[in-house]
Each structure stands twice: as structure tokens, then as C-alpha cells.
């Protein structure tokens, strides 16, 4: 991790820190990431997952603009995930629901190319984001939200060590007009040392160490 970039963002000047792992590099989302992200959504045709809003290739540019607009308004810090083995941008993720008074953040609005699954890339991305949230921003908790029917995402969040706080019924309207029940999970500060050890152990296993 590049410690020189780990500076808590002021609400009025949000900038994504640069977070470096062994397999993935998280950096500020930029318009020039569009072409790689179009390739990423084609990898697995991610837009066909009805329970999570992923743009089609021709909608990626608009999605980047949407996230950058939210960043300018102070409500999101968006990242692009760069796979270090080939230098390709393979997905996006974000801090959102930023509460600097606590402080507290949520991690989400995440999607990654299908080819990154079971490679340890998503685990390392989450470890980088959680480390920055707890150790640099000094958050008291970090939240994750997902669709009740997104079983894959729910398992992934639970495998991180997050605990289910509850299910928010009719919480959001999906792009197709349906109403989403949202499962809300969190990791609190007291749990972070154990979660960090757990994720580091999972990474070592995924790398055959």
C-alpha cells in the first residue's frame, strides 16, 4: 500500500487514495478507464445479472460520469481496479454513504470482470479498502449492502467476516422498476483485527502459500 497517498479526504475535496496490493491496484476512477471497463462488463456479460445494476458496454461512459458527479457532490469516492498481471482495468468499486462525523463509510457499487473470480483479486481489493477505512480514516464501522436475492454477493460479504444487521424491505427501486429488499451488513472497529487476519489468511491460501 502506498502510504503517502493515504490521507483522509476532506468532504469538500474528495479524492480516491491510491491503494496497492500484490495483485490489484485501486486508483481514482477516470473517464479514460472507459474502454477497459467496457471489456470488463463483456467478460461474463455482467449486465444480465438482474439483481445488480451493471451497465451494458454502451452505458459505461455514462456510469463513470454518474460516479464522478457523485464524487463532486461529496457522496462517493469511486475507484477503478487495475489487475497488476496485465495492467488492465477489470472493475470498479466505491466508498459511499460517507459520514465523516462518525466516521463511517459503506463499500459497494462493485463489479468485476468474470475472469477475476476465484483469483483473490476481489478479496485483496476489499482488504485494501477496509485497511484504509479502519486504519487511516479511523472508521467505527464499515457497511456493505446487497440485494436479498444476490446470493453470490451475500456469500462474498459474509466470507469477509461482515455480520448481517438486518434486511431493509422495499429499500430501493431497481432499473427494471422492481423493488429491492436490501441486506445490510457491517464490520465494526472491534472486529477489524480478526477480520484482517482472516482476509490475509485467505489471500495466502489463494496464492498457494
> Would you list the SSEs in sequence order as H and E?
EEHHEEEHEHEEH
Which sequence of strands runs across the widest sheet?
1-2-3-4-5-6-8-7
- What's the shape? globular
SS elements, strand count: 8
> CATH homologous superfamily, by name?
Gcn5-related N-acetyltransferase (GNAT)
Q: Give the low-pLDDT segments.
A: 1-7
H/I helix tally: 5
Strand proportion, as a percent range, falls in 25-35%
**CATH topology-level name:** Aminopeptidase
Organism: Rothia koreensis
Domain N-acetyltransferase: 25-163
Keywords: Transferase
GO molecular function: acyltransferase activity, transferring groups other than amino-acyl groups
Question: Quick summary of this structure?
Answer:
By secondary structure, the protein is of the alpha+beta class. 30% of the residues lie in helices and 30% in strands. The radius of gyration is 16 Å and the shape is globular.
Keywords for this structure?
209 residues; Aminopeptidase; 8-stranded mixed beta sheet; 5 helices; 30% strand; disordered N terminus; GNAT_dom; acyltransferase activity, transferring groups other than amino-acyl groups; Acyl_CoA_acyltransferase; GNAT family N-acetyltransferase; transferase
Describe the structure.
34% of the residues are buried. Helix 3 runs antiparallel to helix 5. With 209 residues, this protein is an alpha+beta fold. The N terminus is likely disordered. It has a single domain, classed as Aminopeptidase, CATH 3.40.630. The chain has five helices and eight strands, in the order ββααβββαβαββα. It starts with 18 loop residues before the first strand and ends with a helix. Helix content is 30%, strand content 30%. Strands 1-2-3-4-5-6-8-7 form an eight-stranded mixed beta sheet, sandwiched between helices. Strand 1 and strand 2 form a beta hairpin.
Amino acid at each position: 500500500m502506498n502510504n503517502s497517498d493515504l490521507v483522509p479526504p476532506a468532504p469538500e475535496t474528495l479524492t480516491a487514495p491510491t491503494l496497492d496490493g500484490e495483485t490489484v491496484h485501486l486508483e481514482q476512477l477516470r473517464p479514460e478507464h472507459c474502454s477497459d471497463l467496457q471489456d470488463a462488463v463483456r467478460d461474463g456479460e455482467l449486465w444480465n445479472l438482474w439483481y445488480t445494476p451493471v451497465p451494458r458496454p454502451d452505458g459505461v461512459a455514462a456510469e463513470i460520469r454518474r460516479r464522478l458527479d457523485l464524487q463532486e457532490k461529496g457522496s462517493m469516492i469511486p475507484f477503478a481496479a487495475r489487475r497488476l498481471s496485465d495492467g488492465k482495468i477489470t472493475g470498479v468499486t466505491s466508498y459511499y454513504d460517507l459520514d465523516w462525523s462518525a466516521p463511517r463509510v459503506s463499500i459497494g457499487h462493485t463489479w468485476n470482470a468474470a475472469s477475476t473470480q476465484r483469483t483473490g483479486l476481489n478479496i485483496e481489493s476489499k482488504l485494501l479498502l477496509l485497511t484504509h477505512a479502519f486504519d487511516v480514516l479511523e472508521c467505527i464501522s464499515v457497511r456493505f449492502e446487497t440485494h436479498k436475492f444476490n446470493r453470490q454477493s451475500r456469500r462474498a460479504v459474509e466470507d469477509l467476516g461482515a455480520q448481517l444487521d438486518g434486511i431493509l424491505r422495499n429499500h430501493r427501486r431497481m432499473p427494471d422498476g422492481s423493488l429491492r429488499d436490501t441486506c445490510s451488513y457491517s464490520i465494526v472497529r472491534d472486529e477489524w483485527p480478526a477480520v484482517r487476519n482472516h482476509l490475509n489468511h485467505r489471500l495466502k491460501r489463494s496464492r498457494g502459500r
